[in-house]
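Closing statement on the pyridoxal-5'-phosphate sub-project.
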Amino acid sequence: MERATQHELQLARRMSRLGTETAFEVLNKARALERQGKSIIHLEIGEPDFDTPANVVEAGVDALHKGWTHYGPSAGLPDLRQALAEYVSRTRGVKVAADEVVVVPGGKPIIFFTILALIDEGDEVIYPNPGFPIYESMIQFLGAKAVPIRLREELDFRLDVGELSGLINDRTKLIILNSPQNPTGGVLTKKDIDGIARTIDDRNIMVLADEIYSRLIFEGEHHSIMSVDGMKERCILLDGFSKTYAMTGWRMGYGVMRADLAMHIARLMTNSNSCTASFTQIAGIEALRGPQASVDAMCAEFKKRRDVMVAGLNKIKGFSCRLPKGAFYVFPNITKTGWPSKKLADALLDDAGVAALSGTAFGDFGEGYLRFSVANSIENIEKALDRVGAWAEKNL
Ligand SMILES: Cc1ncc(COP(=O)(O)O)c(C=O)c1O
């Protein structure tokens, strides 16, 4: 028989401030329902349903055979840092050197490390809401004040620059931007970016620009605040391989920042992960320098699915949905159903067999919305729309 626990688990107080990413919980619940024999259509997951391009897989396998199986430098392999510096210089139109790049296991660690390196308890961090839940979680975990800037549906889920200006004060240390945006698909325009830079003016406020969906844009172009004159030294650009090359499970992302900060982020890597897996970094060089047709094909497919999803949702009683300009999510307004978001998401999963996320999984300003990922086939998206439509007819 197991011995009863004698000692109470004494967690550090900060653990009570740690949030989560609900997508993983909903996925687990959906899988449990599937094990009971229920049919579920998965529209909750934030990862491309495509395979990693074959040339990238081959480069990774080849790297394993060639012995890239050892520790590497904490900041990343020099050849990958160089390839990334060239890629970011080209795509953001700003000169970046290899020592301004730090390679980490996924985009997420750049969020954690940036806040760890720059933010003290009591500092204020402005972050998008609804937004990727890890921002709020990490800000609060580290004892800083999380200040939400509301993304507004009437602005196609961009932020209002005037409103941002009103949130900045002497304690503001960091502003987090995310474009294209998770969960809304909102995309900041050049005018927004310039306006944000003007609002920050010459204040010593850093900007974490989460551009992990930078290659998934359906209308217009991607604009980075790093490209704005005078902003580079106050900017940490986050990008990665997960979404662009369907490499979520490889765990590889990067940050681009001034070299003196990059050194400290590399120290955090030394203290936590030692380094990003060496063979995945070799595959990363192939991803960047090899053919890009698969990225374009994936983007075109997401656009088609988005169109089907948005048109379908707009025909369902109680739903109204804007056309997102990037990423692979749609974020319908469901206030006219009269149902709170979480209850509706639960009902759609339990009764209709469609897994979606409640808007509130992305912060308080997500109430009144659901997030559907279009990382599933058009056939399944149509099936999901039929199911949600039938549910709405029956229950609303
Ligand atoms: C806005 C945003 N930033 C960062 C990430 C993290 O990406 P990764 O899987 O590379 O850590 C995600 C993943 O969903 C995301 O949506």
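The mean pLDDT is 96. With this model delivered, the sub-project is considered complete and its resources will be redirected to Aim 3.
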